[in-house]
Automatic annotation (TrEMBL):
Protein name as it appears in the record: Prepilin type IV endopeptidase peptidase domain-containing protein
UniProt-listed InterPro entries: Prepilin_IV_endopep_pep (IPR000045)
A GO cellular-component term linked to this record: membrane
Any single Pfam family the record assigns to this protein: Peptidase_A24
Ranges of residues in domain Prepilin type IV endopeptidase peptidase: 13-109
Protein's organism: Corynebacterium marinum DSM 44953
Transmembrane segments: 6-23, 35-62, 82-110
Keywords, in A-Z order: Membrane, Transmembrane, Transmembrane helix
Amino acid sequence: MWGILLLGGAAAVTVWWAGLLVLHDEKRRRLPDHLTLPAALGAALGALLTEPALLLGGLGWAGAYLAGGILGRGIGGGDVKLALSLGVVAAAAGGGAGVFAAAATAGAVTAARGVLARGKAVPHGPSMLVGALSVVVFDTWRGALAPAVGLP
């Protein structure tokens, strides 16, 4: 029973945190350190204590964004820090393919939003959350469905 309560509490905190990120990024076009830095540090520490290889997913997504931010425009420090935490989550759900899928989905969602906004700049953080969530939902769905249809 306590496990379910803890899981529900963790889910509620995660949804609250994601909602704050979306609202802040949509309004101010930046992801604040007080929301991204603790999550990045927590994800990195959690990965190191449980499954260190998961940190590679976070470092991969964050590293790609860091390089993109240095070479181009549009990727900020908040996006890099958010990519670290979401990359760990995506790696836990879907391995390296999950991280790639989350990042690709984030890019596609941002591009679609840009088209719908008629070329105006749109924040990228909400799209990153959609990308990571899609990988987690797909992995959960696949895990629940696999025994029923005989998948490994």
